[in-house]
Structure formats: structure tokens, C-alpha cells
Amino acid sequence: MIFLTACAEGSFDTVPSACPPVVEYSRAEQARVADELAALPGGTLIAEWLADYAVLRELARACE
What we know:
mainly alpha; 50% helix; elongated
């Protein structure tokens, strides 16, 4: 049997994190997104998706 792990590159000393990285946005970017979101018509699907994204970001922060 051939052991393929011998062919793997890199170190096994560092365990990869199961937590996804959280991208940080500047205050200016956050303000621009808030303005753009406010300009959308009510009931827009993207607003619901952004709310879901906010929850995922909070979960990722808690994971760290």
C-alpha cells in the first residue's frame, strides 16, 4: 500500500481553524452600504439576505 501522506507538503504542527475569517469593513464602507440599503424599495430580498449575512458574521466572530 502506498502512503500518500508522505507526498503531502506542509506542516502538520498547525491545526487549521474551523472558524471562517471575518472581513472587516471601514466605517465609510458601512455607511455607504447603509445608505444604499435605505434607498432600496421596501421588501427587497437583498435586505433579507444582508440580515442573514450579519448573523453569519456574528457566528464567525463567536467561533474565534
